[in-house]
Specification:
- The protein is mostly helical.
- The chain is 40% helix and 0% strand.
- The chain contains three helices and no strands.
- It has helices at residues 9-22, 39-57, 62-67.
- Helix 1 (9-22) packs parallel to helix 2.
- The longest helix is centred in the middle third of the chain and has 19 residues, at 39-57.
- The relative contact order is 0.13.
Length: 97
């Protein structure tokens, strides 16, 4: 984890937070495969995956995880590029002449 997330303390905190919220920091070994997006997004996806796995262990974990906001997926995605525009919303420069 330290090597893959390049030692970034914020990303490492994202990954550890679901286990820390329930007091299981040293109780579980976690093996994860993440692909796509950047390292920040992958760290948050790993956090969501760990939280969902802890729900499968015991349904009583739902309330503390929900209270910390660990069971909510960030639904924002990149907007598609529209025809005639340079990017999703950026129009080509207007020229009067």
């Amino acid at each position: 984890m330290q090597e893959y997330l390049q030692g970034n303390p914020l990303w490492l905190q994202y990954v550890k937070f679901p286990l820390a919220a329930l007091g299981y920091e040293s109780s579980y070994d976690v093996f994860v495969k993440a692909h796509g997006g950047g390292l920040s997004g992958q760290a948050q996806a790993i956090s969501l995956g760990i939280a969902r796995a802890l729900l499968k262990v015991s349904e009583s974990h739902r309330t503390p995880l929900r209270k910390e906001g660990l069971l909510t997926r960030d639904s924002r995605v990149v907007e598609r590029k529209k025809v005639g525009l340079k990017k999703a919303r950026k129009a080509p420069q207007f020229s009067k002449r």
